[in-house]
Predict the structure.
Amino acid sequence: MDFFKKFFSSKSKSYDKIQDEENDQQKMTDDERFVYHFVKNGGKFFYPDDMEDFKNQLNALLKQLQKEHFSVIERGYLHFLEKLNVPVKFSFQKDDVLLGGCESLIASEGAVMTTAKQSSEYRNIELPQKRVIIALSNQITSNKSEALNIINKKYEKPPANIQTMSIFAPPENNLSGNKWYEVYLFLIEN
């Protein structure tokens, strides 16, 4: 009898712990909820103080990853990074580190939503696994529905290839075959 009591009491503690975690998440802002889920999903999060700090963190990451440059396929980032003296090239190979933007950051999942505007019509699985995403704080949305509504309002004709990335570390048990990405996110306050 004590065995069952012990078993069920441990279940109830786990349930209470889950309830506390859910209550804590409900008290969080969308910014906090995004960071919580993003990091929990295996993402690496950076919040630079200013452009100089951003440049230093990017260069330190490049050195840590043992790469000579970031690859970009969005022309706007090419010029922006060249002005900051961050080494970039306008092409990529599968083992490169791809740097770019996103459409939104989804707080409820810690996911990054991209479209063909960021991927130049490539599908996520055709792009490098290592990604550096640069996002602005006003790109954080509560959920996917809100993110899709923003895309529909932003573009006269919604872009193709809308995708989300939410697995940022190799899963222990990847029976579903989901693709994971090594993502470094730089969130810039605007």
Observations:
- The chain has one domain: 2-188.
- Strands lie at 44-46, 70-71, 88-89, 97-100, 104-106, 111-114, 130-136, 140-141, 163-165, 182-188.
- The mean pLDDT is 83.
